[in-house]
Inverse folding.
């Protein structure tokens, strides 16, 4: 009999569903089906793909309550948070659908003087079957950032959802199948890590992975065996910089939400704050006041739910312990705030920069606030991380200048996480936060390859690519290049 696994409600550990733990053979079969669907999907008109994807987006919104129920059951997040996540995912699908044709249109290029007889263009072609591997923290929004853009560019998809949220993955494929009236274009394979590993070596033409940096390294090693290209969207340790001219009330409110919502399980959530010492006391007082008013508990009534992954509790505990041991102080909460599966808000102050709460992704409702004497120090500390996913800057006048110094993929000024909801900008990180981009034009281009097409419109009297080439031709080319100082266009 085929192996199975369960997904659980992290609030009470009850089984939500039972799913096949698919073998590499099952994965190969799913990839073969998606491969069979590739010619017709990739050759369909852009308008036809757009229609299907817009219907996919509409269906998702039509059935948002049912899907949010399932997201809430499998992750433990409040229904309203699940709804917001799904609504934003539907927005991304619609954006990719509406913009793929114009953004992936053939682009004409200049042939230059030497090749003036040529028509020159670059076409963008879909890759084939794309393997998408997703995490559990935003089980709709995050994988859709790859799936929708890959499909809009003409690829077919095999999706491996997290073992914590397999039911959500299956519903996504089902919604698409209904929109497309086709069950082959978008396949789902359920299972544990082995199933994801099998997808990496299945012959897919690209892997779009979202998850931890540690797993991304394993995925990259598997992909390297067949030179399968990879997008790696990994973890973060996002800094928040609060300057002395910041709107302190707004900065405090948004930072608490960014750090604590979804139980702190947001890759681009605030994890560490560098606040100018001139306003630090008042900022800290506001943060503590706001965080004191929120609590973890049953998602039907609390501000946020449990840690979705039971093993994360020990990680959160170890970061808090280490921060206190190294000299950090508690402004709110304590180790007693951690009672599995729930973690109440914890605010730590003046935590040494070599603490795990600063160097590693905590992925819990905790926030470190450290004082800095100026913005140069804040920038240097923000950049000292091995991660480089997102960042927030709060400053009335100097936001752009500070943002431009940060080594990370995305910066929000006087707002938090806002770049994820804007479909026209790319999403991704630097350093250990990964490489490649989803969302926006760059996200569409990731799922295509460029093909250069150069066509002779007429023959030039100078034969360059011929054994009949004369010395005088060589001399002429060098002379022209010298005259034009290397330019030929
Ligand atoms: P993991 O790295 O544990 O897992 C991610 C996915 O990889 C899951 O589907 C997992 O399957 C699968 N997987 C596990 N082992 C392998 C393997 N050897 N080969 C291939 N696939 C494998 O991450 P989490 O699910 O715990 O997600 C949380 C992490 O994701 C955090 O670090 C967070 O920051 C990051 N993240 C990054 C985002 C970004 O866009 N940069 C967005 C959202 C989250 P299984 O679950 O079955 O083990």
């Amino acid at each position: 009999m085929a192996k199975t696994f369960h997904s659980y409600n992290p609030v009470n550990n009850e089984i939500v569903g039972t799913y096949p733990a698919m073998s590499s053979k099952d994965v190969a079969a799913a990839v073969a089906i998606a491969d069979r669907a590739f010619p017709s999907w990739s050759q369909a008109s852009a308008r036809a793909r757009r229609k299907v994807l817009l219907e996919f987006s509409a269906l998702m919104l039509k059935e948002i309550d049912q899907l949010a129920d399932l997201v809430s059951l499998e992750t433990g997040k409040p229904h309203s948070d699940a709804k917001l996540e799904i609504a934003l995912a539907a927005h991304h699908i619609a954006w990719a659908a509406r913009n793929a044709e114009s953004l992936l249109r053939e682009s004409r290029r200049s042939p230059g003087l030497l090749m003036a007889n040529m028509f020159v263009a670059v076409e963008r072609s879909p890759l084939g079957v794309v393997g998408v591997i997703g995490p559990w923290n935003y089980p709709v929004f995050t994988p859709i950032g790859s799936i929708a853009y890959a499909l809009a560019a003409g690829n077919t998809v095999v999706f491996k959802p997290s073992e914590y949220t397999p039911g959500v993955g299956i519903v996504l494929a089902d919604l698409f199948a209904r929109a497309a009236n086709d069950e082959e274009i978008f396949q789902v394979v359920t299972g544990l890590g082995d199933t994801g590993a099998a997808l990496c070596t299945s012959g897919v033409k690209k892997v779009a992975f979202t998850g931890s940096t540690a797993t991304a390294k394993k995925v990259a090693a598997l992909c390297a065996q067949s030179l399968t290209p990879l997008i790696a969207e990994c973890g973060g340790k996002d800094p928040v910089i609060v300057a002395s001219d910041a709107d302190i009330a707004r900065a405090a409110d948004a930072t608490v939400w960014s750090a604590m919502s979804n139980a702190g399980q947001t890759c681009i959530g605030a994890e560490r704050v560098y606040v100018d010492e001139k306003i630090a006391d008042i900022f800290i007082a506001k943060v503590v006041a706001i965080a004191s008013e929120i609590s973890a508990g049953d998602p039907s009534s609390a501000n946020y739910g449990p840690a979705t992954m039971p093993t994360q509790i020990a990680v959160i505990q170890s970061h808090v312990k280490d921060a206190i041991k190294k000299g950090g102080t508690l402004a709110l909460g304590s180790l007693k705030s951690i009672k599995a599966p729930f973690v109440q808000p914890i605010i730590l102050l003046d935590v040494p920069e070599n603490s795990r709460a600063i160097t590693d992704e905590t992925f819990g409702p905790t926030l470190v606030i450290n004082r800095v004497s100026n913005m140069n120090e804040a920038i240097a500390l923000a950049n000292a991380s091995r991660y480089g996913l997102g960042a927030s800057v709060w400053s009335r006048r100097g936001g752009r200048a500070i943002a431009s110094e940060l080594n990370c993929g995305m910066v929000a000024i006087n707002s938090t996480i806002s770049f994820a909801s804007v479909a026209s900008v790319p999403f991704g990180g630097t350093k250990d936060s990964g490489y490649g981009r989803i969302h926006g034009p760059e996200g569409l281009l990731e799922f295509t390859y460029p093909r250069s097409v150069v066509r002779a419109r007429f023959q030039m009297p100078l034969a360059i690519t011929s054994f009949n080439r004369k010395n005088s031709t060589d001399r002429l080319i060098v002379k022209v290049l010298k005259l034009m100082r290397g330019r030929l266009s």
Observations:
- The CA atoms of residues 289 and 332 lie 9 Å apart.
- The longest helix spans residues 79-103.
- The two ends are 66 Å apart (CA to CA).
